[in-house]
Amino acid sequence: MNRQTKTFLMNRFREMGISPATRHGQNFLIDLNLHRVIIDAADLTEQDVVLEIGTGTGALTTLMAEKAAGVVTVEIDGHLFELASEQLIDFPHVTMLHQDALKNKNNFDSRVLEAIGEKLAEYPDRRLKLVANLPYNIATPVLSNLLLCEHVPHSMVATIQKELGDRIVAQPWSKDYGALSVWMQAQAEAEIVRLMPPTVFWPMPKVESAIVRIVVDPAKRSTIPDLRFFHQFVKAIFIHRRKFLRANVVAALKHHLSKAEVDEILAEMQLSDEARTEQLDVSTLMRLTELVRSRAPNWTL
Length: 301
Ligand SMILES: C[S@@+](CC[C@H](N)C(=O)[O-])C[C@H]1O[C@@H](n2cnc3c(N)ncnc32)[C@H](O)[C@@H]1O
Fold this sequence. Notes:
Elements: H1 6-16, E1 28-29, H2 32-42, E2 48-53, H3 59-65, E3 70-75, H4 78-87, E4 94-98, E5 102-104, E6 107-108, H5 110-122, E7 127-133, H6 139-146, E8 155-161, H7 162-169, H8 179-185, E9 188-196, E10 201-202, E11 209-216, H9 218-221, H10 227-237, H11 245-252, H12 259-268, H13 282-295
Parallel strand pairs: 2-3, 2-7, 3-4, 7-8
Antiparallel strand pairs: 1-10, 5-6, 8-11, 9-11
This protein binds S-adenosylmethionine.
């Protein structure tokens, strides 16, 4: 049964006596062709275990379940969890969790990570893929944190705000280039697959959306010796990305490196005092991180 038309959703919400919760980013994708675009972009096969954050009514989950070896799907809302449980009753390889997917903005909840671990153990040699129409308020932590987890995804295909998609694929000197662009591009190929107007959702969000595909590149990733350090250092120096790089590094490494030591590092990299953080490309930032880490290995944000 098609449970994701505007009429179906409006009727079910009315029957349940509830309205979509803005605080949980409940904007349901009602253009069913776009469900197909998401599933095709994820290229799901029997080789895959899928993680979905935001089960909703289970419409996208059903399409994933038809293709993948196993699915772990997480939903915070009790009413939707119940609705999706009915929809997914015939799919024993789908593990449904009723909870907040995140413990806090830097970490997934441990029960989600355990469920992924169990599913991967149940289906050995499978690849983990995130496929989701993400709640927009947690899209950044979900995409960023998954790349720090024990079970590294093969890829992530997600519906997110267009503005976030622009930041993920942005290049140096552009207004959208920042810590998120560097974090993603240092270890993955990222692209915007499709732009979407608000009209393809019910209720309509205030912003444009995009489907992004981020495919992790293990070779690139292996060139980052300490992912956590890199993640935090890049975040720290991009807080004021338009400022001079020197000032940003000095401020970030306060109490860990003297100004003279920062100057030595910048000289070694042949970066002038006038260099700005926003101009540095990913490989330059990786080298800079390693020079800083060799002098201040215990630094954390
Ligand atoms: C954009 S809707 C997507 C629903 C459905 N997958 C679809 O494609 O239409 C986001 C869903 O995520 C759920 N959600 C919001 N915050 C969450 C969180 N922190 N953890 C788990 N689910 C969450 C919402 O209740 C909602 O069902």
